[in-house]
Amino acid sequence: MSKGFHSEALISEFVKEGDVEEDMRDEIREILNRKHVHQYEQAKKNGPNGDKSGFLSTVRSISDIGK
Prior knowledge:
The chain is an all-alpha fold. The protein has helices spanning 3-17, 25-32, 39-45, 55-65. Residues 39-67 are annotated as: Disordered.
């Protein structure tokens, strides 16, 4: 079974149960089929000179407050 088949079955079930409107099928399909990315991997996409003040830096600075 392909990933596409599973997402279509899941979307159909959501629509049938009334959890998702029919006109949202394309958007839900796109979301379900997105590649999983960790937050630290997003920072790597910016390159070595990318923005260093990202989410993880904020978390580190907040955790340093308690020290």
